[in-house]
Specification:
The chain has one domain (3-62): Helix Hairpins (Orthogonal Bundle). The protein has three helices and no strands. By secondary structure, the protein is an all-alpha fold. The longest helix is centred in the middle third of the chain and has 24 residues, at 11-34.
Length: 63
């Protein structure tokens, strides 16, 4: 997800998106461990999305 998409969400939507993304990353890691995943880029994308959400919420808290 791009930063401009995250910027337009409110705090509740960001919290829900963070929860969903973390769960998806957890499931992805289980699948990697089982050898079911062929595309490892998805994990990188999910980690970046989580970092973008944290960046947005921290910026909001400091303003």
């Amino acid at each position: 997800m791009k930063m401009k998409d995250i910027q337009h969400k409110n705090t509740e939507e960001l919290a829900q998106l963070l929860k969903e993304t973390r769960n998806a990353l957890r499931e992805f890691r289980f699948q990697v461990g089982q050898g079911k995943v062929k595309n490892n880029q998805n994990g990188k994308i999910m980690r970046r999305t989580i970092a973008r959400i944290f960046t947005r919420t921290n910026k909001e808290n400091h303003e």
